[in-house]
């Protein structure tokens, strides 16, 4: 149900009009290199690591694997970065979805990622691959579920049942990853383990998970006004029991909301994620925001400030560390993160007004 709910508010994965491939692979000049590098460090290194190695936080995959780069470049990479993946820590970064980057910023990033590893794109067949989904389901359970989750929801491996992922991954793209694995990552090659026909069955099973999804065009909600940041300004302070002096159980935050306690809740994911779904009253405060602006409009008077992300901790930790360094008392991070929060059936709201602004 939650998956369906999230899918309904997901942004349509619109294709961009890719300039011809030769242009995309033409060498970046020094100014472009420096700009892409800075964007990468600001927006992406938190999870994918300073050297693009992956697995810095939240099981974010490697952005160096030649197997990924040569098959995902340019369209799949563009879609992943622009629109993200539902139910994972990978959110959309394009302005149309409430994120901070323009289409040309994202094109620059994917060109930079490809050039860093000097890849040659592989042309994959666009035709569907026929296979038996029921057979594939069994094979998936035996060979893939330990890493990708029993329902394809992701784990140490990426979420394969993700609607945004499946809407842009072709059958051949899936097959290529299964046959070749992803170099330098835990995703090994299944070429000697499963027969070609069995791989087709697994692909058919993965594909069957994509059905029943009808994307909606994006409708962006207005960002809250600073005078709405403090929830229940006249309420009592909440009582939180912090684990390791920092992490607050989701249930305690839920109780504080019910009891109309005075507090601020910060959503530290990209603005696009806040647009899609957030905890009621949460203020968007993306982890990549300029440090000088994170504390903007946040009272430093002992009011409780609780941050969360999907991760469940990387983005919120970075914002809370910054507030603590400025002397903010009474700060914490929702231990479970918002994906678990949703799974626990705790309250969320989805954005859907018509104002298009960017939090940068
Ligand atoms: C030991 C853990 C593990 C197992 C088992 C495993 N995978 Fe993976 N898989 C991963 C990881 C980790 C990645 C991401 C690799 C990276 O960093 O690019 C991945 C990536 C993929 C991708 C590319 C997804 C994307 O986001 O582009 C596909 C498709 C895939 N796996 C399918 C499968 C299938 C099908 C099976 C079973 C036949 C399987 N995997 C078994 C760990 C695993
Ligand atoms: C908060 C953590 C986080 C941040 C920040 C983040 N990502 Fe990701 N990214 C992930 C995760 C987790 C996945 C895998 C999602 C899944 O399970 O499908 C992912 C997947 C991807 C993929 C798909 C790779 C594949 O193997 O298919 C690309 C490309 C990507 N990210 C690029 C970026 C870029 C570029 C940025 C910065 C603009 C960025 N990411 C920022 C967590 C993050």
UniProtKB/TrEMBL annotation:
Fetch the SUPFAM superfamilies from UniProt: Cytochrome c, Rhodanese/Cell cycle control phosphatase
Q: Which UniProt keywords apply?
A: Heme, Iron, Metal-binding, Signal
Q: Which residues form the signal peptide?
A: 1-22
Tell me where in this chain the Rhodanese domain is found.
Answer: 259-350
Q: Which Pfam families match?
A: Cytochrome_CBB3, Rhodanese
State the InterPro entries in the record: Cyt_c-like_dom, Cyt_c-like_dom_sf, Cytochrome_c_Oxidase_Subunit, Rhodanese-like_dom, Rhodanese-like_dom_sf
Recorded superkingdom:
Bacteria
Q: Which PROSITE patterns match?
A: CYTC, RHODANESE_3
Q: Which residues form the Cytochrome c domain?
A: 31-117, 131-210
- Official protein name in the record: C-type cytochrome
- Organism of provenance: Rheinheimera marina
């Amino acid at each position: 149900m939650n998956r369906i709910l999230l899918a309904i508010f997901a942004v349509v994965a619109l294709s961009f009009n890719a300039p011809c491939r030769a242009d995309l692979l033409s060498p970046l000049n020094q100014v472009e290199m420096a700009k892409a590098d800075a964007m990468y460090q600001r927006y992406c290194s938190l999870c994918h690591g300073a050297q693009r190695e992956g697995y810095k936080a939240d099981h974010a995959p490697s952005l160096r694997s030649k197997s990924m780069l040569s098959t995902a470049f340019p369209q799949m990479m563009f879609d992943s970065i622009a629109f993200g993946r539902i139910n994972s820590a990978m959110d959309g970064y394009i302005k149309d979805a409430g994120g901070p980057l323009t289409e040309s910023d994202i094109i620059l990033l994917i060109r930079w990622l490809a050039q860093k590893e000097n890849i040659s794109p592989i042309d994959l067949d666009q035709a569907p691959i026929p296979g038996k989904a029921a057979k594939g389901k069994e094979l998936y359970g035996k060979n893939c579920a330990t890493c990708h989750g029993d329902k394809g929801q992701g784990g140490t491996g990426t979420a394969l049942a993700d609607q945004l992922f499946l809407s842009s991954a072709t059958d051949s793209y899936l097959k290529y990853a299964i046959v070749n694995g992803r170099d330098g990552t835990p995703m090994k090659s299944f070429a000697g383990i499963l027969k070609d026909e069995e791989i087709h069955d697994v692909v058919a099973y993965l594909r069957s998970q994509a059905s029943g999804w009808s994307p909606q065009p994006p409708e962006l909600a207005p960002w809250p006004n600073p005078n709405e940041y403090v929830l229940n300004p006249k309420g009592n302070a909440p009582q939180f029991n912090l684990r390791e002096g920092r992490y607050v159980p989701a249930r305690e935050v839920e109780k504080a909301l019910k009891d109309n306690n005075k507090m601020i809740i910060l959503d530290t994911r990209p603005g696009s994620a806040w647009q899609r779904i957030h905890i009621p009253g949460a203020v968007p405060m993306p982890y990549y925001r300029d440090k000088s602006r994170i504390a903007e409009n946040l009272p430093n008077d002992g009011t409780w400030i609780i941050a969360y992300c999907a991760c469940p901790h990387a983005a919120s930790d970075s914002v809370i560390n910054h507030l603590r360094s400025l002397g903010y008392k009474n700060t914490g991070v929702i231990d479970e993160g918002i994906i678990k929060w949703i799974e626990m059936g705790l309250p969320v709201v989805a954005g859907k007004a018509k104002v298009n602004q960017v939090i940068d």
